[in-house]
Amino acid sequence: MLKFYFHPSPNPMKVALMLEELQTPFELIAVDTFRGEQHRREFREINPNAKVPAITDDGVTVFDSHAVLLHLAAKHERFLPTSAAERAQALSWLMFVATGLSPFSGQAVHFLHHAPTPLPYARNRYLKEVERHYRVLDERLATSKYLAGDTYSVADIALWGWANFAGYILGEAGLSAYPNVKRVVDEISVRPAAARAQALKNKLTLKAEFDEETRRALFPQNEEMTA
């Protein structure tokens, strides 16, 4: 059975949504990143980068959320459009999320909420880049039902992961400035698969407190700076 190494944060939630859309059986394995379990030797043998998500699937190990999404889409022949034009769009927008929205969102969260010292330049830099990426996405979705065209695809599944957490970066307004992105995210969020993905965290007992142990686990480079 497929093993899914999981913590309920934005990147693993993309894979959770994909697995629930596929309705393929999987074993859920908690990796409590707040306690530093991602740094354990046995997990680093699965993902040398010490991050979730990762899967093992019929003896095949895949890490990085977007690699996992592509692996599952190809294996099950779902959520990748069959027409060449739409498939090209799906892959292009998937990579836009993978190399743009996701890392800039992660850095925005760090500098807005977790940096030990407020750094106005970094906060402005990453927040403005997140906003710019959402504008690009919003313009696309103003003229297209989904990112790939008329077909719900792996690109939309990837978008949902971080966009569903947008309020943590953008504040109470959330996605209100990006109505077309909000339309797609809201549509995905009411799908049964999304409800099942959200419910996965209720099956696990994970640390919730963000304390010094958590800071060391998530940002070990900071310890090197003060050593």
From TrEMBL:
Keyword Transcription regulation found:
no
The enzyme class is oxidoreductase
The record places domain GST N-terminal at: 1-80
One Pfam entry for this protein is GST_C
Q: For this UniProt record, give its keywords in alphabetical order, as a comma-separated list.
A: Oxidoreductase
Q: Answer whether the UniProt record assigns the keyword Oxidoreductase to this protein.
A: yes
User: GO molecular function, one example?
Assistant: oxidoreductase activity
Q: Which InterPro entries match?
A: Glutathione-S-Trfase_C-like, Glutathione-S-Trfase_C_sf, Glutathione_S-Trfase, Glutathione_S-Trfase_N, GST_C, Thioredoxin-like_sf
Name the EC number(s): 1.8.4.-
Q: Where is the GST C-terminal domain?
A: 83-210
Q: Which residues form the signal peptide?
A: none
What CDD domains does this protein map onto?
GST_C_Ure2p_like, GST_N_Ure2p_like
What's the name of the protein? Disulfide-bond oxidoreductase YfcG
